[in-house]
Write a structure and sequence with these properties.
Shape: globular
CATH superfamily: Metallo-dependent phosphatases
Number of domains: 1
CATH architecture: 4-Layer Sandwich
Largest sheet: 6 strands, mixed
Strand content: 15-25%
Number of helices: 4
CATH class: Alpha Beta
CATH topology: Purple Acid Phosphatase, chain A, domain 2
Structural class: alpha/beta
Length: 248
């Protein structure tokens, strides 16, 4: 992904974005989490962005999994710059503080309207976590308050509907939540997308006046235990300066 404002510090940065795991949903048991971790690690990301909705209370055909059990499996994720997470609406509906504690116990940094500085190649950049729109109080300005104006910053959040309020100085926003619609029909697209912008932020890369957001379709399911035309995905994004060579 070429970013016009991509500084040298971010050129070649490799991010694995995981969202909407919904551990305990059909087909997302402990064995699937281990496979998810194995395949993510095989992509050798510089850091892993966890974008919320790790748990789910009830999905037909599934089996409930606690936040602690889910976090124990995800704790094996490996990346030189670590794992950075935000919470999603299902995490808050279940027990936000409990999910956060479980993720922190796995060695992850959980951000709620705050930013963390990371270093790559001797250069500092920031990852700002913006709270969930449906179950939290998203505040992009507060999330960026500690970030100097002249330093590169990426934003992570659960719900892409926050994106119109993300300041232009954010190089890229990563989000999940939509499941890509979860069901996508030929010629008709996704009948249901949990976004007030409908199809606009359903899935993939979207540009808006030079700003960029990438929405990953996620891993699990909610409400209905079906994915059709929107397969689960470990999204791997490699950031590039416009003049650099394409990634191999």
């Amino acid at each position: 992904m070429a970013l016009p404002s991509c500084p040298a510090a971010l050129d070649g940065l490799r991010i694995a974005a995981l969202s909407d795991i919904h551990a305990g949903a059909p087909h997302v048991d402990a064995a699937k989490l281990r496979l998810l971790v194995e395949r993510t690690n095989a992509e050798r990301p510089d850091f892993v962005a966890l974008l919320g909705d790790y748990v789910i209370k009830d999905v037909a055909g599934g089996r409930f999994m606690t936040a602690e059990a889910m976090s124990r499996e995800l704790a094996a994720l490996q990346a030189p710059l670590g794992v950075v997470a935000v919470l999603g609406n299902h995490d808050w509906w279940y027990d936000g503080p409990r999910v956060q504690k479980a993720l922190v116990g796995a060695g992850f940094r959980v951000l709620e309207n705050e930013a963390i500085a990371l270093e790559r190649g001797g250069r500092r950049f920031w990852v700002a976590g913006i709270a969930d729109l449906w179950a939290g109080s998203p505040d992009p300005e507060r999330a960026l308050a500690a970030v100097p104006e002249d330093e590169p910053v990426l934003a992570i959040t659960h719900n892409p509907d926050v994106f119109p309020h993300v300041p232009a100085r954010v190089a890229l926003t990563l989000a999940g939540h939509t499941h890509g619609g979860q069901v996508r029909l030929p010629f008709l697209g996704a009948p249901i997308v949990p976004s007030r912008f409908r199809q606009r932020y359903a899935v993939g890369l979207v540009e808006d006046e030079g700003r960029k957001i990438f929405v990953t379709p996620g891993i699990g399911t909610s409400i209905v235990p079906v994915r059709l035309g929107v397969p689960p995905e470990i999204s791997v994004i490699v950031l590039r300066r416009p003049t650099s060579e394409p990634p191999r």
